[in-house]
Amino acid sequence: MVKKVTISDVAKLAGVSKSTVSRYLNQGYISDKNAAIIKKAITDTGFKSNFFAARLKTKFNKLIGIVVPRIDSYSAGQTLAGINEILTQEQYQSIIVTSELDSTKEIQAIHQFNQQGVDAIIVISVGITQEKLSLMQQYSTPTIFVGQQHPDLNYIKLNDEKAGMLLGQHLEQCQFKNCVYLNVNKSDKAIGIERCQGFLQAFNGNVHFINTDFSFEHAYLHAPEILKFKPDVIVGATDNIALGVFKYLQEKNIKIPNDIAVAGFGGYPVSEISSPALTTISFNFKLLGKNAAFSILKLLVGKTFHSCLEDNFKLLIRSSTQL
After folding, report:
1. What's the pTM value of the predicted model, to 2 decimals?
2. Which domains does the chain have, with CATH numbers?
3. Which UniProt keywords apply (predicted)?
């Protein structure tokens, strides 16, 4: 394990007091000689000077590092809101870094937080890679991954496979026979694999797959390709994807659901005000975030935490699948 470098480590190497190091970090007065010694000690230890260095005299900095995949995501935004609600109640502050759906940037953020000396890290993850697993073996900072699972990591996530089954069962009961499923990259195991597998377990009709990303615009551009399969139902791996196709169908005067039904996953507010309203699996992302925050606080005080899958979702049957 790589030990967190603290102000005490710097002071010991420099042969000065912690208060002297603190004055240096906060640009207070110290002699030129001591400044040079401390500067060298910081370089030698790899200590990262930052705005919370003055807090290092206490056991906890009261700072949690949070990695989010993107700032314009409803799911990430709601999860983050839940996390912050609990952390604020416990007088913790958050430092938020965006990975921009890039696994490499997610790894860089985790490494940076460990070097900065935050108390704990919550990662709303885009996927678990071998490189990420290797990184986690190097550090002892309590860390929880949200949205993805791996037996060697602390995680909390929604049961995407069960959610997929729930939507698949509904569409099977509606007697749809020919489905086009717009899926995301399988590097996102939760959405790209588990959610899809659950759907396939429950839906017995034909399923044609088209790969897209998470954007409304990309899904819209795929719509002409989708229609070649002559589907009676289209499923988006997220509501955003489903609504991108939704827009194209309406522009082409294709009636929903009479000509083609549409459904998604997420429960985004916009799915309720679309016309017709979108059938969707509504996830309680905010509750997921709260539970992630409660879990990281448990780890911080040495309590046992058990990784888990949560069933905080429900099927909202709306007009887009009701013939």
Report:
1. 0.81
2. 7-57 (1.10.260), 63-157+285-310 (3.40.50.2300), 160-283+315-321 (3.40.50.2300)
3. DNA-binding, Transcription, Transcription regulation
